Amino acid sequence: MHYEYEQIDYQVDIPIKIFTHTVERFPYHWHEATEILFVLEGELEIRVNQDNFQLSTGDILLNLLCSKYII
Question: pLDDT tens digits, residue range 9-61?
């Protein structure tokens, strides 16, 4: 399985990137940044390393590790 490195481009004045994104399918990837996923609407399945998570509206996933995952 091939994982792509995702480069995170932060704002100049603060080391954070905030955005909304519609997810149908996102390729396997990894990055060195902490990631917080908040589900605004609907459901999604995410795999972090070997663990699968079912998320739905209002759920939050906090990924603190340099993990490999797919959405």
Answer: 777 788 777 778 787 777 777 777 788 889 999 998 888 877 888 999 999 98
Closest C-alpha to 69, from 51, 57, 55: 51
- Give every strand in the sheet of 68-70, ordered side by side: 4-5, 29-30, 68-70, 43-48, 51-56
CA torsion, points 54, 67, 39, 52, in degrees to nearest 10? 0
Q: What is the 3-state secondary structure (H, E, C) of the chain?
A: CCCEECCCCCCCCCCCCCCCCCCCCCCCEECCCCEEEECCCCEEEEEECCEEEEEECCCEEEECCCCEEEC
Phi, psi of 3 (to 5 degrees): -110, 135
